[in-house]
């Protein structure tokens, strides 16, 4: 019995697996999510996982983009400059008005939505990022951050590029 270093689950059976080159103790669920074969309870032989993971290139030199820090102001100003309401923009983009209002209020849109807004409003929302591979530390939630949280965020960031 141990504590899973990925999800934080306590008093569970843990297995030693490698995640991004680091050895961690992981529960069966976290191990299977990452495609690791676990020993069978009856035979002790590894059981093949059915999860396929997409491999990423390490030296991908394509520029990386992220949503600009003032994206919400750009969206609202462009919409107002075109003289259209949030409802009209929602109809044009086939989007809910509530979602558009959230984006204008500062909620970050998914990349696909940001690109739709860029095309419709003829503005730039996605800006090229500096590729220094640093991740800001977020504080204040009071929630314990596990290795899995950091790994999942890293994988999301790399797949959005």
Describe the structure.
By secondary structure, this protein is α+β, with helices and mostly antiparallel strands. Helices cover 36% and strands 12% of the residues. The chain has helices spanning 28-33, 71-82, 86-93, 97-104, 111-121, 147-159, and strands spanning 15-19, 22-26, 38-39, 46-47, 65-67, 126-128. The strands form 3 sheets. Strands 1-2 form a two-stranded antiparallel ribbon. The protein has a two-stranded antiparallel sheet with strand order 3-4.
In what range is the share of β-strand residues?
Answer: 5-15%
Q: CATH topology of the domain at 65-128, anyone? A: 434 Repressor (Amino-terminal Domain)
The helix content, as a percent range, equals: 25-40%
* Spatial separation of the terminal alpha carbons: 39 Å
Number of helices: 6
The low-confidence parts are none
CATH architecture of the domain at 65-128: Orthogonal Bundle
Number of strands: 6
Largest sheet: 2 strands, antiparallel
What would you call the structural class?
alpha+beta
Give the H and E element order: EEHEEEHHHHEH
Radius of gyration: 21 Å
């Amino acid at each position: 019995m141990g504590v899973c270093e990925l999800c934080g689950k306590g008093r569970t059976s843990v297995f030693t697996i490698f995640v991004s080159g680091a050895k961690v103790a992981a529960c069966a669920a976290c191990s299977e999510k990452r495609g690791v074969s676990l020993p069978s309870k009856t035979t002790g032989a590894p059981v093949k996982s059915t999860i396929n993971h997409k491999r990423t290139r390490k030296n991908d030199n394509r520029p990386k983009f992220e949503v600009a820090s003032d994206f919400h102001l750009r969206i609202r100003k462009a919409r107002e400059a075109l003289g259209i309401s949030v409802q009209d923009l929602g109809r044009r983009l086939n989007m809910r008005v509530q979602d558009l209002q959230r984006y204008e209020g500062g909620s970050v849109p998914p990349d696909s939505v940001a690109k739709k807004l860029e095309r419709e409003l003829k503005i730039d929302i996605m800006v090229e990022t500096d590729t220094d591979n640093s991740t800001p530390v977020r504080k204040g939630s009071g929630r314990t951050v596990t290795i899995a949280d950091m790994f999942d965020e890293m994988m999301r960031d790399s797949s959005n590029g």
